[in-house]
# Entry
Amino acid sequence: MLKLIARILLVVTVVVFILYKLYGYVTVSQTDVPASRNDLDETVQRFDQTRKRPFEQTERESDVFKTQNTQQLHAMWNWTNSPHSPTDSVFVMIPFCKARHNANLQTKFRTCVTSMSAFSSAHIVLFIAGDAESREIADDIVSGLQKKNVEVHHIDVQGLGEGMRDTISTLQQHFSSTSDSYYTHTLFYLSTAIHRLAPPSLHRLIMLDADLKFKDDIRRLNDLFDRFLPSNVIGIAHENQPVYRHVLSMYRQSHPNTRAGSPPPEGLPGFNSGVLLLDLDRLRRSERYNTMLDTDMIQSLSKKYLYKGHLGDQDFYTLVSLENEELFFVLPCGWNRQLCRWWRDNGYKDVFDSYFACHGPISVYHGNCNTPIPDD
Ligand code: UDP
Ligand code: MN
# Structure
């Protein structure tokens, strides 16, 4: 009898062990096992080549804008002359730099602003974070709009950069794969600290990439602020490619059942920052969020997750989300329908669809990594 029980116990142990191993195998597919840190980084660099930004590294910044102190910085946002009531307005910021010799970027920006205006039932206060050379181009595009519902204010990106120099230098150290110019950093990390630079009278801000196309009313996107849970400070959509599965692959190897980098809905696939809902009041008040921006915190989280990013602000949000999910309101995928498929053909074919799938209506297309947006 004792022998029988011992045998049953042995069989049960073996079966449980096999099932556990099988589960680990399914969770961590073969695809996400780069042999070394070098392999991992090399793939990331190849991806970066497809979306290399056309910045000239050594170019001197324009001195048209001269904004040094807080008062001057706040004055740049001067939308209070607007005859529209703040409650009927949507506040939007789009970075638009180095556009003069970049026809592709101009076309993207035109598509973005034109479609946003065409579908909007709200007055749009549009802050363009840019440089002097792109200013006229943006003004031309906006003045040609059919509907007169967009009011433009130019915010000097260099002035903003001065105000966030410290924050940026740490972020750049951890979330940038190349040694881009300082100016580039300002642009790609702007969203993380804009609550410290915008005037207190600005409560909510939607930050957008220029490579978007609207199919829906931005007022409906703005209404999602009201769906935030009390702990949410930022609204952001999931990243639609397994890029963070890759970035986190070292960590995932030693933590086979982790949610970090796994696909939705159970996993934490990371975020894409092409469409951001920033609750500036909550961001200013949130001790948790502001602690995350501290150098020590970024360093210790990066170390724990063996994390080296390359996509700017969204790397920061992704890393923070691994331990602070409650800070983020996850936007429905249709509000930032990313089209880039690079990672499907670079090692992640078998898991790609579980990240890329987006059911439901598409309100905003995002032509990331220079992917053309469908005409329909
Ligand atoms: N951008 C810019 N000038 C540039 C490159 C980028 O103003 O030379 C801005 C623009 O708003 C763009 C955003 O930075 O949409 C982020 O870059 P991009 O959309 O190309 O990155 P991706 O979405 O492909 O990762
Ligand atoms: Mn983009």
